[in-house]
Specification:
8-stranded parallel β-barrel; disordered N terminus
Protein backbone atom coordinates (compact mmCIF):
# COMPACT_ATOMS: atom_id res chain seq x y z
CA UNK A 1 0.00 0.00 0.00
CA UNK A 2 2.82 2.38 0.88
CA UNK A 3 4.58 1.60 -2.39
CA UNK A 4 1.47 2.46 -4.34
CA UNK A 5 1.16 5.81 -2.58
CA UNK A 6 4.78 6.56 -3.33
CA UNK A 7 4.30 5.73 -6.97
CA UNK A 8 1.49 8.28 -7.23
CA UNK A 9 3.97 10.99 -6.24
CA UNK A 10 5.76 10.86 -9.61
CA UNK A 11 5.28 14.21 -11.35
CA UNK A 12 3.11 14.73 -14.40
CA UNK A 13 5.27 16.79 -16.68
CA UNK A 14 4.29 19.02 -19.57
CA UNK A 15 7.18 17.98 -21.81
CA UNK A 16 6.72 20.85 -24.25
CA UNK A 17 7.27 23.30 -21.41
CA UNK A 18 9.54 21.27 -19.14
CA UNK A 19 12.21 20.33 -21.67
CA UNK A 20 12.95 21.11 -25.29
CA UNK A 21 15.85 18.76 -26.02
CA UNK A 22 14.67 15.46 -27.63
CA UNK A 23 17.48 13.59 -25.86
CA UNK A 24 16.14 14.83 -22.54
CA UNK A 25 12.68 13.56 -23.47
CA UNK A 26 14.18 10.11 -23.95
CA UNK A 27 15.77 10.38 -20.51
CA UNK A 28 12.41 11.32 -19.00
CA UNK A 29 10.82 8.32 -20.71
CA UNK A 30 13.48 6.00 -19.35
CA UNK A 31 12.89 7.38 -15.84
CA UNK A 32 9.16 6.69 -16.06
CA UNK A 33 9.89 3.13 -17.16
CA UNK A 34 12.27 2.50 -14.27
CA UNK A 35 10.03 3.99 -11.57
CA UNK A 36 7.90 0.99 -10.60
CA UNK A 37 6.65 0.11 -7.09
CA UNK A 38 9.47 -2.28 -6.20
CA UNK A 39 12.03 0.45 -6.82
CA UNK A 40 10.17 2.93 -4.63
CA UNK A 41 9.54 0.77 -1.56
CA UNK A 42 12.87 1.65 0.08
CA UNK A 43 11.50 4.56 2.13
CA UNK A 44 7.97 3.19 2.53
CA UNK A 45 8.38 2.82 6.30
CA UNK A 46 8.78 6.59 6.64
CA UNK A 47 6.21 7.69 4.05
CA UNK A 48 3.47 8.57 6.54
CA UNK A 49 5.92 10.37 8.84
CA UNK A 50 7.32 12.41 5.95
CA UNK A 51 3.89 13.50 4.72
CA UNK A 52 2.71 14.35 8.24
CA UNK A 53 5.84 16.41 8.98
CA UNK A 54 5.63 18.31 5.70
CA UNK A 55 1.96 19.15 6.28
CA UNK A 56 2.69 20.28 9.84
CA UNK A 57 5.40 22.68 8.70
CA UNK A 58 3.18 23.87 5.85
CA UNK A 59 0.29 24.81 8.14
CA UNK A 60 -1.84 27.95 7.63
CA UNK A 61 -0.40 31.21 8.92
CA UNK A 62 2.97 29.71 9.83
CA UNK A 63 6.45 29.46 8.36
CA UNK A 64 10.04 28.59 9.19
CA UNK A 65 12.57 30.40 11.36
CA UNK A 66 15.98 29.74 9.78
CA UNK A 67 18.43 29.91 12.67
CA UNK A 68 20.96 27.51 11.16
CA UNK A 69 23.86 29.92 10.78
CA UNK A 70 27.21 28.17 11.12
CA UNK A 71 29.30 29.14 14.12
CA UNK A 72 31.41 31.37 11.88
CA UNK A 73 28.38 33.16 10.43
CA UNK A 74 26.77 33.46 13.85
CA UNK A 75 30.03 35.08 14.93
CA UNK A 76 29.61 37.75 12.25
CA UNK A 77 26.11 38.47 13.51
CA UNK A 78 27.33 38.73 17.10
CA UNK A 79 30.24 40.94 16.05
CA UNK A 80 27.74 43.40 14.53
CA UNK A 81 26.46 44.09 18.05
CA UNK A 82 29.87 43.99 19.69
CA UNK A 83 29.81 40.46 21.09
CA UNK A 84 32.59 37.88 20.98
CA UNK A 85 31.88 34.64 19.10
CA UNK A 86 31.76 32.23 22.04
CA UNK A 87 29.52 29.23 22.64
CA UNK A 88 28.01 31.02 25.64
CA UNK A 89 27.02 34.02 23.52
CA UNK A 90 25.64 31.81 20.75
CA UNK A 91 23.68 29.89 23.38
CA UNK A 92 22.29 33.08 24.88
CA UNK A 93 21.09 34.35 21.52
CA UNK A 94 19.54 31.06 20.47
CA UNK A 95 17.83 30.79 23.85
CA UNK A 96 16.31 34.23 23.25
CA UNK A 97 14.91 33.07 19.91
CA UNK A 98 13.38 29.74 20.88
CA UNK A 99 11.87 30.92 24.17
CA UNK A 100 9.96 33.88 22.70
CA UNK A 101 6.47 33.42 24.22
CA UNK A 102 3.90 32.20 21.70
CA UNK A 103 6.41 31.88 18.84
CA UNK A 104 4.74 28.66 17.70
CA UNK A 105 1.62 30.59 16.76
CA UNK A 106 3.52 31.97 13.76
CA UNK A 107 6.48 29.58 13.36
CA UNK A 108 5.96 25.93 12.40
CA UNK A 109 9.58 24.86 11.98
CA UNK A 110 13.05 25.96 13.04
CA UNK A 111 16.19 25.06 11.10
CA UNK A 112 19.09 24.47 13.49
CA UNK A 113 22.84 24.24 13.12
CA UNK A 114 24.32 20.99 14.45
CA UNK A 115 25.60 22.70 17.60
CA UNK A 116 22.09 23.96 18.37
CA UNK A 117 20.44 20.57 17.82
CA UNK A 118 22.48 19.23 20.75
CA UNK A 119 22.49 22.46 22.76
CA UNK A 120 20.54 23.43 25.87
CA UNK A 121 19.20 26.85 26.80
CA UNK A 122 20.91 28.97 29.44
CA UNK A 123 18.43 27.43 31.90
CA UNK A 124 19.54 23.90 31.03
CA UNK A 125 16.53 22.80 28.96
CA UNK A 126 17.18 21.08 25.64
CA UNK A 127 16.50 23.46 22.76
CA UNK A 128 14.80 20.65 20.82
CA UNK A 129 12.40 20.11 23.74
CA UNK A 130 11.64 23.85 23.97
CA UNK A 131 10.74 23.90 20.27
CA UNK A 132 8.44 20.88 20.57
CA UNK A 133 6.71 22.52 23.55
CA UNK A 134 6.10 25.56 21.31
CA UNK A 135 4.61 23.26 18.63
CA UNK A 136 7.60 23.98 16.38
CA UNK A 137 9.17 21.14 14.37
CA UNK A 138 12.98 20.97 14.80
CA UNK A 139 15.02 20.80 11.60
CA UNK A 140 18.73 20.52 10.84
CA UNK A 141 21.14 21.99 8.29
CA UNK A 142 22.97 19.00 6.78
CA UNK A 143 25.08 20.41 3.94
CA UNK A 144 28.76 21.12 4.51
CA UNK A 145 28.93 24.38 2.61
CA UNK A 146 30.02 25.64 -0.79
CA UNK A 147 33.36 24.96 -2.43
CA UNK A 148 34.75 25.91 -5.88
CA UNK A 149 33.41 23.81 -8.77
CA UNK A 150 36.32 22.71 -10.95
CA UNK A 151 35.75 23.26 -14.67
CA UNK A 152 33.11 25.95 -14.15
CA UNK A 153 33.01 29.71 -14.56
CA UNK A 154 34.18 30.47 -11.02
CA UNK A 155 31.04 28.78 -9.65
CA UNK A 156 30.39 26.60 -6.60
CA UNK A 157 29.03 23.23 -5.62
CA UNK A 158 27.72 22.07 -2.26
CA UNK A 159 29.49 19.31 -0.36
CA UNK A 160 28.14 16.99 2.32
CA UNK A 161 26.81 13.79 0.71
CA UNK A 162 29.58 11.64 2.19
CA UNK A 163 28.30 10.23 5.47
CA UNK A 164 24.94 11.96 5.09
CA UNK A 165 22.90 8.80 5.66
CA UNK A 166 24.49 8.02 9.03
CA UNK A 167 24.37 11.68 10.10
CA UNK A 168 20.70 11.91 9.12
CA UNK A 169 19.81 8.82 11.13
CA UNK A 170 21.56 10.34 14.16
CA UNK A 171 19.78 13.67 13.69
CA UNK A 172 16.43 11.87 13.56
CA UNK A 173 17.21 10.16 16.86
CA UNK A 174 18.10 13.56 18.34
CA UNK A 175 14.65 14.89 17.42
CA UNK A 176 15.09 16.52 13.99
CA UNK A 177 12.25 15.84 11.59
CA UNK A 178 13.31 17.83 8.54
CA UNK A 179 16.59 18.78 6.90
CA UNK A 180 17.97 21.62 4.83
CA UNK A 181 20.53 21.62 2.01
CA UNK A 182 21.44 24.91 0.34
CA UNK A 183 23.23 25.24 -2.94
CA UNK A 184 23.52 28.34 -5.10
CA UNK A 185 23.42 29.44 -8.73
CA UNK A 186 25.12 32.65 -9.81
CA UNK A 187 23.64 34.58 -12.73
CA UNK A 188 26.68 36.86 -13.33
CA UNK A 189 28.88 33.75 -13.56
CA UNK A 190 26.72 32.02 -16.14
CA UNK A 191 25.20 29.98 -14.87
CA UNK A 192 27.02 27.17 -16.65
CA UNK A 193 25.20 23.96 -17.55
CA UNK A 194 27.71 22.13 -15.35
CA UNK A 195 26.87 24.24 -12.27
CA UNK A 196 23.11 23.85 -12.77
CA UNK A 197 23.37 20.09 -13.20
CA UNK A 198 25.66 19.72 -10.18
CA UNK A 199 23.25 21.76 -8.03
CA UNK A 200 20.23 19.74 -9.15
CA UNK A 201 21.88 16.33 -8.78
CA UNK A 202 23.28 17.14 -5.34
CA UNK A 203 19.88 18.32 -4.12
CA UNK A 204 18.19 15.18 -5.47
CA UNK A 205 20.68 12.80 -3.84
CA UNK A 206 20.40 14.67 -0.54
CA UNK A 207 16.58 14.58 -0.74
CA UNK A 208 16.49 10.83 -1.34
CA UNK A 209 18.96 10.13 1.49
CA UNK A 210 17.04 12.37 3.88
CA UNK A 211 13.73 10.66 3.15
CA UNK A 212 15.33 7.24 3.62
CA UNK A 213 16.14 8.35 7.17
CA UNK A 214 12.81 9.96 8.06
CA UNK A 215 13.74 13.59 7.45
CA UNK A 216 11.66 15.83 5.19
CA UNK A 217 14.19 17.48 2.86
CA UNK A 218 14.02 21.21 2.23
CA UNK A 219 15.21 21.57 -1.36
CA UNK A 220 17.00 24.91 -1.74
CA UNK A 221 18.72 25.99 -4.95
CA UNK A 222 19.19 29.69 -4.30
CA UNK A 223 19.41 32.03 -7.29
CA UNK A 224 21.77 34.60 -5.82
CA UNK A 225 20.74 38.26 -5.82
CA UNK A 226 24.26 39.33 -6.77
CA UNK A 227 24.36 41.13 -10.12
CA UNK A 228 22.84 43.82 -12.31
CA UNK A 229 20.53 41.47 -14.24
CA UNK A 230 16.86 42.15 -14.89
CA UNK A 231 13.93 40.36 -13.32
CA UNK A 232 13.28 38.66 -16.68
CA UNK A 233 16.78 37.19 -16.65
CA UNK A 234 16.18 35.84 -13.15
CA UNK A 235 12.95 34.24 -14.38
CA UNK A 236 14.77 32.63 -17.32
CA UNK A 237 17.50 31.15 -15.14
CA UNK A 238 15.06 29.99 -12.45
CA UNK A 239 13.03 28.10 -15.08
CA UNK A 240 16.18 26.32 -16.19
CA UNK A 241 17.27 25.47 -12.65
CA UNK A 242 13.87 24.19 -11.49
CA UNK A 243 13.44 22.04 -14.60
CA UNK A 244 16.74 20.35 -13.83
CA UNK A 245 15.99 20.01 -10.11
CA UNK A 246 12.63 18.29 -10.62
CA UNK A 247 13.98 16.03 -13.33
CA UNK A 248 16.62 14.66 -10.94
CA UNK A 249 14.23 14.52 -7.98
CA UNK A 250 12.02 12.25 -10.09
CA UNK A 251 14.99 10.19 -11.24
CA UNK A 252 15.95 9.62 -7.58
CA UNK A 253 12.40 8.48 -6.69
CA UNK A 254 11.88 11.31 -4.21
CA UNK A 255 8.42 11.42 -2.65
CA UNK A 256 7.10 14.85 -3.63
CA UNK A 257 4.44 14.85 -0.90
CA UNK A 258 7.29 14.59 1.61
CA UNK A 259 9.49 17.51 0.58
CA UNK A 260 9.46 21.27 1.11
CA UNK A 261 10.92 23.78 -1.30
CA UNK A 262 12.95 26.84 -0.38
CA UNK A 263 13.27 28.83 -3.60
CA UNK A 264 14.32 32.37 -4.28
CA UNK A 265 11.65 34.84 -5.27
CA UNK A 266 11.92 36.10 -8.84
CA UNK A 267 13.47 39.55 -8.36
CA UNK A 268 15.95 41.73 -10.26
CA UNK A 269 19.62 41.53 -9.33
CA UNK A 270 20.42 43.57 -6.23
CA UNK A 271 22.49 46.00 -8.31
CA UNK A 272 19.89 46.41 -11.07
CA UNK A 273 18.64 49.94 -11.68
CA UNK A 274 15.15 48.62 -12.37
CA UNK A 275 13.31 47.78 -9.16
CA UNK A 276 10.24 45.55 -9.11
CA UNK A 277 6.99 46.06 -7.23
CA UNK A 278 5.66 43.30 -4.97
CA UNK A 279 2.94 42.70 -7.56
CA UNK A 280 5.53 42.14 -10.31
CA UNK A 281 7.60 39.84 -8.10
CA UNK A 282 4.49 37.87 -7.18
CA UNK A 283 3.30 37.58 -10.78
CA UNK A 284 6.56 36.18 -12.15
CA UNK A 285 7.26 33.99 -9.12
CA UNK A 286 3.83 32.38 -9.22
CA UNK A 287 4.11 31.91 -12.99
CA UNK A 288 7.38 30.10 -12.41
CA UNK A 289 5.90 27.89 -9.70
CA UNK A 290 2.91 26.96 -11.85
CA UNK A 291 5.20 25.97 -14.71
CA UNK A 292 7.64 23.95 -12.66
CA UNK A 293 6.26 22.72 -9.33
CA UNK A 294 3.81 19.78 -9.06
CA UNK A 295 0.79 20.58 -6.85
CA UNK A 296 1.60 17.49 -4.74
CA UNK A 297 4.45 19.44 -3.13
CA UNK A 298 2.92 20.68 0.16
CA UNK A 299 4.94 23.80 0.92
CA UNK A 300 6.90 26.54 -0.83
CA UNK A 301 8.94 28.20 1.92
CA UNK A 302 10.63 31.20 0.31
CA UNK A 303 14.04 32.47 1.35
CA UNK A 304 14.55 36.20 1.72
CA UNK A 305 17.97 36.25 0.07
CA UNK A 306 19.08 39.66 1.31
CA UNK A 307 15.77 41.51 0.97
CA UNK A 308 14.87 43.87 3.78
CA UNK A 309 12.52 42.56 6.44
CA UNK A 310 9.61 44.60 5.10
CA UNK A 311 10.35 43.87 1.44
CA UNK A 312 10.37 40.11 2.04
CA UNK A 313 7.04 40.36 3.86
CA UNK A 314 5.41 42.56 1.21
CA UNK A 315 6.46 40.20 -1.59
CA UNK A 316 5.15 37.18 0.29
CA UNK A 317 1.87 38.94 0.95
CA UNK A 318 1.46 39.77 -2.74
CA UNK A 319 1.82 36.08 -3.62
CA UNK A 320 -1.02 35.19 -1.26
CA UNK A 321 -3.67 37.50 -2.65
CA UNK A 322 -5.29 34.55 -4.41
CA UNK A 323 -5.43 30.82 -3.61
CA UNK A 324 -2.39 28.72 -4.54
CA UNK A 325 -2.09 24.95 -5.05
CA UNK A 326 0.60 24.98 -2.35
CA UNK A 327 1.19 26.52 1.07
CA UNK A 328 3.18 29.61 0.00
CA UNK A 329 5.12 30.79 3.03
CA UNK A 330 8.51 31.82 4.40
CA UNK A 331 11.78 30.40 5.65
CA UNK A 332 13.63 33.55 6.67
CA UNK A 333 16.83 34.10 8.62
CA UNK A 334 17.96 37.72 8.55
CA UNK A 335 14.48 38.90 7.50
CA UNK A 336 13.16 37.57 10.82
CA UNK A 337 16.16 38.19 13.05
CA UNK A 338 17.76 41.49 12.06
CA UNK A 339 15.73 43.90 14.21
CA UNK A 340 15.58 41.32 17.00
CA UNK A 341 19.37 41.03 17.11
CA UNK A 342 19.93 44.80 17.02
CA UNK A 343 17.32 45.31 19.76
CA UNK A 344 18.98 42.73 22.00
CA UNK A 345 22.50 44.08 21.61
CA UNK A 346 23.79 41.36 23.94
CA UNK A 347 22.20 42.94 27.02
CA UNK A 348 20.07 40.78 29.35
CA UNK A 349 17.70 43.65 30.10
CA UNK A 350 16.82 43.83 26.38
CA UNK A 351 15.74 40.20 25.98
CA UNK A 352 12.01 40.89 26.23
CA UNK A 353 12.17 43.80 23.79
CA UNK A 354 14.18 41.65 21.37
CA UNK A 355 11.67 38.83 21.65
CA UNK A 356 8.85 41.29 21.00
CA UNK A 357 10.67 42.39 17.84
CA UNK A 358 10.99 38.77 16.71
CA UNK A 359 7.32 38.12 17.41
CA UNK A 360 6.33 41.24 15.48
CA UNK A 361 8.22 40.06 12.42
CA UNK A 362 6.90 36.51 12.78
CA UNK A 363 3.33 37.81 13.07
CA UNK A 364 3.80 40.10 10.06
CA UNK A 365 4.92 37.14 7.94
CA UNK A 366 2.12 35.01 9.33
CA UNK A 367 -0.33 37.66 8.10
CA UNK A 368 1.49 37.75 4.76
CA UNK A 369 1.10 33.98 4.42
CA UNK A 370 -2.63 34.55 4.82
CA UNK A 371 -2.56 37.51 2.42
CA UNK A 372 -3.57 39.97 5.17
CA UNK A 373 -0.40 42.01 5.78
CA UNK A 374 -0.78 45.80 5.42
CA UNK A 375 2.74 47.08 6.14
CA UNK A 376 1.50 49.64 8.63
CA UNK A 377 3.65 50.72 11.58
CA UNK A 378 6.93 49.21 10.37
CA UNK A 379 10.17 50.59 11.85
CA UNK A 380 12.96 52.15 9.80
CA UNK A 381 15.27 49.31 10.88
CA UNK A 382 12.89 46.78 9.32
CA UNK A 383 13.05 48.65 6.01
CA UNK A 384 16.85 48.56 5.75
CA UNK A 385 18.32 46.51 2.91
CA UNK A 386 20.06 43.36 4.13
CA UNK A 387 21.83 42.39 0.89
CA UNK A 388 25.56 41.75 1.22
CA UNK A 389 27.50 41.21 -2.00
CA UNK A 390 29.21 37.81 -2.06
CA UNK A 391 27.50 36.83 1.20
CA UNK A 392 28.52 33.41 2.53
CA UNK A 393 26.98 31.28 5.29
Amino acid sequence: MASASLLKSSPVLDKSEFVKDPKTLLRLHSVSVRCHPSALSVRASYADVLVKTAKTVASPGRGILAMDESNATCGKRLASIGLENTEANRQAYRTLLVTAPGLGQYISGAILFEETLYQSTVDGKKIVDILVEQNIVPGIKVDKGLVPLAGSNNESWCQGLDGLASRSATYYQQGARFAKWRTVVSIPNGPSALAVKEAAWGLARYAAISQDNGLVPIVEPEILLDGEHSIDRTFEVAQQVWAEVFFYLAENNVLFEGILLKPSMVTPGAESKDKATPEKVADLTLTLLNRRIPPSVPGIMFLSGGQSEVEATLNLNAMNQAPNPWHVSFSYARALQNTCLKTWGGRPENVKAAQDALLLRAKSNSLAQLGKYTGEGESEEAKKELFVKGYSY
